[in-house]
Amino acid sequence: MAIPALLVCVLAGCVGLPSYQPPVDAAMVDVKLSPNMRNDTMTLCVDRTCYRAHPSKGHLKVPAGKRVMLFRNFVAGGYQVTYSCHPGVSFQTRGDLAYYADFEIRADRCGFLVFRLDPTSRIGVAWEPTERLTKS
What we know:
- By secondary structure, the chain is mainly beta.
- The protein contains 1 helix and 12 strands.
- The strands form 3 sheets. It has a 5-stranded mixed beta sheet, with no helix packed on it. A 5-stranded antiparallel beta sheet has the order 3-2-5-8-12, with no helix packed on it.
- A hairpin with a 2-residue loop joins strand 2 (42-46) and strand 3 (49-53).
């Protein structure tokens, strides 16, 4: 029941969300952001509370050992057309891993993808089990 209300809040903008300030002694993991979202403020939800998350130098710190939800609002305009989408993703973090987040637009859809950084992989990342939270 909390997830639908949460999605309504996130999609409506929730302008009044507080900025995320992790507890001083909290274990955190790093989420490296793709170049097309490295400066974007996002919405981060942890333990059923949502915050504005501000990246620092293309990285976002999120709590380790928790299920987190990340959302990004995207709006673009062109010749008499405005396109918007609000993709989100939920994943369970682990303290011994680092992550890579990417935003993509393909035709009329947009997506928010999260990968595990994996130096043993041929391409440096591996699929991370996630849940898609919005239909865009």
